[in-house]
C-alpha cells in the first residue's frame, strides 16, 4: 500500500501504538490511512484482532468491499457483520476466529453486555479498535457507551486494552462560539476516545491539492413580495387559537417557525396530561398548519396544500367530538380557497426559481455533470424529486434524478438494497443528481461531484463540512440557496466561523504539552465516569418509580383506558407487546405490515388501530412469535400514561416509570393453549 505524504504523517503516531484521532477532510483518505494502520498492526502484533466500527449499516459492506478486503483480504480473514447478518448471533466466535471484523457499533456494544459464550466479547480480546466518523463519540451515543466501558477499565488499571484509532472530518465545536469553550469540546472528544488528535502540518499543501475546496456561491433570493396562501393559513391558525383558549401562562411564538412547532408539541402534551382533549387536538392540527407554512417557505405551494389535504382526508374519517367537527370543518370550508391560491403561479416560491437556475448553471445538453441536492426531510426530497421530473427546463438539461434517504422500516424509508442500487446508478452515470437527506453527507461511497446544493437546511458546522466535501471534482461548486437575510443564510455564515473556530481549537489542543494534555484528559475521564454512574442511578430510580399494575395506558387520541402496565412484556429486548387477551377488544386490524427484512423468531402481522368509535389512532402492529403467539406490538408514543403522580406522555419506552417483564413464551403458551 502506498500513502500520500500527508497520510503517512497522520498515521505515524498510530504506528507507534499511540491512541490517535485522524483529522482529515472528507475525501482526504482517512479510511485508507486506517487500512494501512490495520495492515501494519496485523503484521507486527501477536494474536492481533482488529475491529472496525461504523455508525450506519450500509457502511459495513462498503468498508469491507471497497477498502479493507482489497488490501487485507489475501493474507487475513475479514468478516463484515451487521444487524442483517446471521453471524451477529455468534459474534463472540466471529471475533475469536477472525483477524478483522467490520461491524456496526451497536453489535459490539451488545456483545460487551451479553454474557452468553458465543455472543460475548471482552475489550481485551481486541488489539486495535477503529472508530469511523468518531465525532459521534459523545453523550449517549453507542460509540461513547463502548468507550465508557474502556475508560472505566483504564481508570481501574485493567489491562490489556485495545489501541484506539478515530477518524473524523470535523469534531466540531459542540455548539461553542468562543475559543475556550471550543477547546473544551475538542478535549472532551479526545477524552472520550482516550486519544490525541493529529492532522497534517508538513504536507498541508499536498492535502490542499488532493482535496481542493469547491467554489462557494450564495444563491440569494429576495423575500416573496406577496404570499396570500401563507397569509390564509395564518388566518386559519388564528381562528384555532381563539377556539382553543390558550392557557395564560403559555406563549406561542411566530407561526411558520421551528420554535412555534416546539411550542405546539408542548401544548399537545399539556392537553394530554390535563385530560383536555380540545387543547391537545387543536395543538396537533396547528402543528400540521405550521408544517405547511414551513413547506410553503421551502417548496411549492402545491406541496404545502397536499400535505394538509392528506392529513384532513384521514381526519375526516375519525371525528370523535365537537372539536374534531370544528377543526375538520374549518379546513373543508377553506379547502377550495387554499387550492386556488396554491395553484396561482404569481405567488410561487421564488426559491424554487433560484434552485432551477442553480441547477441549470451546471447541467445542460451534452454537459457531464454530477450533483447532490441536500434537503432536510424525506418528505422534502420526494417533493423536490417530483418537481425535477415535471420541470421541462431541467429535463431538457438532461437531469436524471433520484431520491437517497436513510434506510429503515416503513413506506417512507429506503431499504439498504435500494440505497445501494441508487448509488450504483449514480456512479455509472444513469443518474446524475441525488436528492438526499443528510444520509449522503458522511460515509457513503459517492463519486466526486461538481455541484453540491444545500436547500432549506439549518445544520451545524460538521454537516456543512461533510456536505462541502462531496464537491470534489475539478472546478466544483457548492451552492447555498436561501432567502436574503434569512435563517439559512445566517446559519451558513455562522458555520463558516465555527469551522474556522474548530481548526483553532484543534491547534490549541495540539500545542499542549504531553503532561498538560494527559492531565486534562484524565480529569475529564474521571468526571465522565462519575456523571455516567449518577445518570444510570437516576434512570434506574426513574424507571422503577411506579409498579407496573399502578400505571394505566390510555389511547392518546380519545383518552380511553385500554391496558395496564402489568399487561406489557418485552420480546427480544426490543418489542413491547400486550399479553392480556382482553386488549384485542380495544383495537381493529388493518392491512399487512411490510418490513424490508425478515426476522428469525417473529414476523409482522397486520396494523392495529383504536376501535373506540371513530378514533382510529394508530397503535402499532401485530407480530407472530415463533409461528404461534399473535401479539399486539405497541408504540408508546400512541398512548398516554395514568400514573400515581398524574398523567404523562413519553416518546420512548425507556422513559416509562415502571419495569416491564420479559416475555416468557412457555408461560404464554400454557396460559393461552392449555391443550398443547
Which features characterize this protein?
about 675 residues; Rossmann fold; seven-stranded parallel β-sheet; six-stranded parallel β-sheet; about 15% strand
Distance between the termini: 63 Å
If strands are numbered along the chain, what order do they take across the biggest sheet?
3-4-2-5-6-1-7
CATH architecture of the largest domain: 3-Layer(aba) Sandwich
How many DSSP helices? 21
How would you characterize this protein structure?
The protein is an alpha/beta fold. It folds into 4 domains: 5-209, Rossmann fold (3-Layer(aba) Sandwich), CATH 3.40.50.300; 213-221 and 349-493, P-loop containing nucleotide triphosphate hydrolases (Rossmann fold, 3-Layer(aba) Sandwich), CATH 3.40.50; 228-347, phosphoenolpyruvate carboxylase, domain 3 (Up-down Bundle); 548-672, Beta Complex (Metal Binding Protein, Guanine Nucleotide Exchange Factor, Chain A), CATH 2.170.150. Helices cover 44% and strands 17% of the residues. It has a 7-stranded parallel β-sheet with strand order 3-4-2-5-6-1-7, with helices on both faces. Strands 8-13-12-9-11-10 form a 6-stranded parallel β-sheet, sandwiched between helices. A 4-stranded antiparallel β-sheet has the order 15-14-22-23, covered by helices on one side. Helix 2 packs across helix 3 and helix 7 (179-193) crosses helix 19. The chain is globular, with a radius of gyration of 27 Å. It starts with a helix and ends with a helix.
